[in-house]
Amino acid sequence: NAVLQQHVRKARVDYAALRAKPERLDQYLAAVSQVTRAEFKGWNEADQIAFLCNAYNAYTLRLILDHHPVKSIKDIGSVLKGPWDQPVVRLLGETRTLNDLEHRMLRVDYTEPRIHFALVCAAKGCPPLRSEAFVGTRLNAQLDDQARAFLAETTKNRVEPEQRTVYLSPIFKWYGSDFEGKTNSLLARLQPYWRDEWRTLPLEKFKIRYTDYDWSLNDPAP
Predict the structure, then answer these.
(1) Do residues 215 and 73 make contact, with C-beta atoms less than 8 angstroms apart?
(2) Any bridge partners for residue 12, and if so which?
(3) What is residue 75's predicted lDDT score, i.e. its pLDDT?
(4) What integer best gives the mean pLDDT of the chain?
(5) CA 131, 87, 173: angle at the middle one, nearest 5?
(6) pLDDT by residue (tens digit) across 76-111?
(7) In whole angstroms, how far apart are CA 170 and each of 7, 37, 80, 87, 208?
(8) CA 218 to CA 199: how far, in whole Å?
(9) Per-residue model confidence (pLDDT) at position 181
């Protein structure tokens, strides 16, 4: 909370200021790395998801700081071993990658597609980074809020009723199956989170097009 409240403004991260004073972030990551698997398994599901989402976002911040200044997280690493394949995540007694955390833990162990509104990979195309940490007791409300905030960003997601078209972030193309679930309908799953005038439209009859993903760093620079 201290790190996010101090360095995140309107979903943008002041990486330069954070790099100058990274002590609180490093203290948090040190604490994360000390959590044992037995301790973790003793938590309820909401606490586990909140912990893992916070860890993902915090290790992403640290990865950016280790390579700052960069224009994009995609500038880190190599063609064969990109930023999400760097062994930078110390978690539950193992050294892992961000891909491990997202694709081999969160997406496998939990049926919670809203994690895609919570995980922020340091790109402007991502959902907004909250200026507070996720906590199990408020996780459901926080994830719903993240969903509404992301779908309200019209450069990424919007409905054009005249064109009978829903424009969506590529996130929903990459992870559409996570959202479809038993409904087998991505648009039905998203319907509750749209702004009022779009929520009542027959969106399942609309076609889907995908917007461009902005991989530039989510810092305050224009």
Answers:
(1) yes
(2) 9
(3) 97
(4) 96
(5) 60
(6) 999 899 999 999 999 999 999 999 999 999 999 999
(7) 27, 34, 22, 26, 11
(8) 29
(9) 77
* DSSP at 70: -
State the Cα–Cα distance between residues 120 and 133, nearest whole angstrom.
Answer: 12
What type of residue is 102? E
CA-CA distance, 217 to 219, in Å (whole number)? 6
pLDDT score at 222: 64
Taking 80 as the threshold, does the pLDDT of residue 184 lie above it? no
Q: Is 33 exposed, middle or buried (0-12, 13-18, 19+ CB in 10 A)?
A: middle
Structure tokens at 68: 């700052």
Tokens of 216: 């530039």
Q: Would you say 6 and 138 are in contact if contact means Cβ atoms under 8 Å apart?
A: no
| Structural tokens at position 219 | 């810092």
pTM over 0.70: yes
Residues 6+ apart with CB under 8 A from 141: none
Q: Per-residue pLDDT tens for 157-176? A: 999 999 999 999 999 999 99
Both tokens of 80, joined, read 């064969």
Determine the Cα–Cα distance for residues 58 and 205; give it in Å rounded to an integer: 39
